[in-house]
């Protein structure tokens, strides 16, 4: 008996699980709008303070804030795009726009890191006198505003929002470092502290930027999502009574926190369509509890041509089918 070829529980066939929240949650676009304008204020304050005080650490932080404005602006735009519904040309909707924004954010942070390190090298060669008071005032404004913004959105799961939050918390840490550096300079007149702080800020930026870029690339390459154990997923499907084998398995993310799976399963030959539907519901239930909310499963009997491999290269799949 040939089983029904394709099943996708995301379209509502009387199932007990409603996964609308998996694909249609609304991101905090209004919060990003507020963050954009408050970060603009931070930039103005730190640029003025950096120029008056001659502090590279403060100007470095202002450079970081400049990328924050671009980052938050991109995130704000992406969040609005994600609210658009799916259509014939974009069947998954616009969720990937947030991943693209996160990738651009991470790349700009890496570039700004290079600029900070270059400027710091020059200051090590020839330290400049710094005025600590303006460092305190400007960095204090940046610290308070970034803590307010970053802590207010720290629980968001969207990678796009996370990337923007990292910008904010990174700026808060950098501002705190500038204040500490200002105190040291005020007491000791040791002006080389300023470029040292700049290097530490650059390393902080680079570490977070690399994580953002890597996570974004994995999603865009449709790699197995973070937190999903591929082999455990396959083993869980095989544990469903009536399933003989599973192959052509693909697990990926539409965007951060929105995981999808497609696969082919070989079912026992002597069963009705109703029996096969019970098996499908069992698989969906198990996968949902493993963090996979959008599932497409092709059911087959043992006579259907297939390769036993759990993986399937696109060219091989195309050739077989």
From TrEMBL:
Domain Cation efflux protein transmembrane residue range list: 34-221
- Output the InterPro entries linked to this UniProt entry: Cation_efflux, Cation_efflux_CTD, Cation_efflux_CTD_sf, Cation_efflux_TM, Cation_efflux_TMD_sf, CDF/SLC30A
For this UniProt entry, what's an example GO CC term?
Answer: plasma membrane
Swiss-Prot/TrEMBL keywords = Ion transport, Membrane, Transmembrane, Transmembrane helix, Transport
Membrane-protein topology: Multi-pass membrane protein
Limits of the Cation efflux protein cytoplasmic domain:
225-300
Which residue ranges traverse the bilayer?
35-56, 62-79, 99-118, 133-151, 172-193, 199-221
Gene3D superfamilies assigned: Cation efflux protein transmembrane domain, Cation efflux protein, cytoplasmic domain
Gene Ontology terms, MF aspect: zinc ion transmembrane transporter activity
Pfam families annotated for this entry? Cation_efflux, ZT_dimer
Q: Does the keyword Manganese apply?
A: no
Sorted alphabetically, which NCBIfam families does this protein's record hold? Answer: CDF
Name of protein: Cobalt-zinc-cadmium efflux system protein
């Amino acid at each position: 008996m040939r089983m029904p070829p394709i099943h996708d529980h995301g379209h509502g066939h009387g199932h007990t699980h409603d996964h609308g929240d998996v694909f249609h949650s609304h991101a905090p676009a209004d919060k990003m709008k507020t963050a954009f304008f408050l970060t603009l204020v931070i930039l103005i304050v730190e640029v003025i303070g950096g120029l008056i005080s001659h502090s590279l650490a403060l100007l470095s932080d202002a450079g970081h804030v400049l990328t924050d404005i671009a980052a938050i602006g991109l995130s704000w735009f992406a969040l609005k795009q994600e609210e658009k519904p799916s259509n014939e040309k974009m069947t998954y909707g616009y969720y990937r726009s947030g991943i693209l924004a996160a990738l651009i954010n991470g790349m700009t942070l890496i570039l700004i890191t290079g600029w900070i390190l270059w400027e710091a090298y020059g200051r090590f060669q020839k330290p400049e006198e710094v005025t600590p008071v303006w460092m305190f005032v400007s960095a204090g404004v940046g610290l308070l505003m970034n803590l307010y913004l970053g802590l207010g959105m720290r629980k968001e799961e969207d990678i796009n929002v996370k990337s923007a939050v990292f910008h904010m918390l990174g700026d808060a840490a950098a501002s705190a470092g500038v204040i500490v550096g200002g105190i040291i300079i005020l007491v000791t007149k040791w002006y080389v502290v300023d470029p040292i702080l700049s290097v530490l800020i650059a390393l902080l930026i680079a570490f977070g930027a690399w994580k953002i870029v890597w996570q974004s690339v994995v999603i865009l390459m449709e790699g197995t999502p973070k937190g999903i154990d591929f082999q455990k997923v396959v083993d869980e499907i095989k544990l469903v009574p009536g399933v003989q084998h599973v192959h052509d398995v693909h697990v990926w993310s539409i965007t951060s926190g929105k995981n999808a799976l497609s696969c082919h399963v070989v079912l026992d030959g002597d069963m009705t369509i109703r029996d096969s539907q019970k098996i499908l519901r069992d698989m969906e239930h198990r996968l949902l509890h493993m963090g996979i909310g959008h599932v497409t499963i092709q059911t087959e009997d043992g006579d259907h041509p297939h390769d036993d491999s759990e993986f399937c290269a696109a060219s091989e799949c195309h050739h077989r089918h």
